[in-house]
From TrEMBL:
Name of this protein: SDR family oxidoreductase
UniProt-listed InterPro entries: ComplexI_NDUFA9_subunit, NAD(P)-bd_dom, NAD(P)-bd_dom_sf
A Pfam family matched in the record: NAD_binding_10
Residue stretches making up the NAD(P)-binding domain: 7-136
SUPFAM superfamilies assigned: NAD(P)-binding Rossmann-fold domains
């Protein structure tokens, strides 16, 4: 089957492309480094020729609600329009557990993305996942000041990006299914602990301070809003197994 992967060079996108190719699918990557700008739409219609399903794992690194909403709205509208013109039969979007209950700027864009996909003319599937294992390293890089890392008090349920990619390709191989069961990691972890263990695994030194973030989003980070419910599916690779593999 011919698949297009929007954001196929990103953290989860590289795994989506790898899994799809391992299973014998023909893959076209939609990203700026592959010559397609999903925000302006440049290069998109040519890339869509013969595509049967689109997996959207494009993203932006902003925490601004305005910027995130503008990004996900433009990307989703452009993808859906190009898919309709090319008679693509399946649009799959990767979203995040808890986006509609946790008021975070980036999540505003994800809520907009989901609502455009649901209202769109292309048959769709939406998978929500929890944070990837990589999140601990990303947050550590953003929140470190010299040897001190200031990490929000947060309960996470990290999952291997590779396992999310495998689920996305399973779904792409089936008919459009609407919103499917959420996918979370095998266990709940405290983000500050994850950062400490990740730093140890890669041989980095320093102090990790855990700080409660005020406001509704801070509460959502602490109270389990961002982890899965009992009806969800779970991956197998633990954060420590993933960290050990990174260290090797
Ligand atoms: N990170 C997490 O923990 C997590 C958890 C659950 C769900 N998700 C969701 O998973 C998806 C992927 O997240 P990620 O962390 O893997 O993203 P990421 O590493 O930041 O990668 C973003 C991708 O989007 C592409 N991109 C950005 N702007 C573009 C543009 N204007 N035109 C074309 N491509 C563009 C980038 O490629 P170029 O730079 O080459 O354009 C890159 O391939 C997102 O929808 C996110 O909400 C993330």
């Amino acid at each position: 089957m011919k698949l297009a992967v929007a954001g196929g060079t990103g953290t989860v996108g590289v795994h989506v492309v790898e899994v799809a190719r391992e299973r014998g699918h023909d893959v076209v990557v939609l990203s700026r480094s592959a010559g397609v700008d999903l925000v302006t739409g440049a290069g998109l219609s040519d890339a869509m020729s013969g595509v049967e399903a689109v997996v959207d794992v494009a993203s932006t690194r902003t925490v601004s609600a305005k910027e995130s909403t503008a990004f996900f709205a433009a990307v989703t509208r452009n993808l859906l329009e190009a898919e309709s013109a090319a008679c693509v039969g399946h649009h799959l979007a990767l979203s995040i557990v808890g986006i509609d209950e946790a008021p975070h700027g980036y999540y505003a864009g994800k809520v907009e993305q989901e609502s455009l996909v649901r209202a769109g003319a292309v048959p769709w599937t939406i998978l929500r996942a929890t944070q990837f294992h990589e999140f601990a390293g990303q947050i550590r890089a953003q929140a470190s000041f010299g040897p001190v890392s200031i990490i929000p008090k947060m309960v996470s349920q990290p999952i291997a990006a590779r396992e999310v990619a495998e689920r996305l390709i399973d779904l792409a191989e089936r008919s459009p299914a609407g919103r499917v069961a959420d996918l979370g990691g095998p266990r709940e972890e405290r983000m500050a602990e994850m950062v400490r263990r990740y730093a140890r695994a890669i041989g980095a030194r320093g102090l990790v301070l855990e700080v409660p973030i005020p406001g509704a989003y801070g509460r959502a980070m602490r109270d389990g809003t961002l982890v899965t419910t009992t009806e969800s599916d779970h991956g197998l690779q633990t954060f420590d197994q993933w960290s050990a593999a990174q260290a090797r």
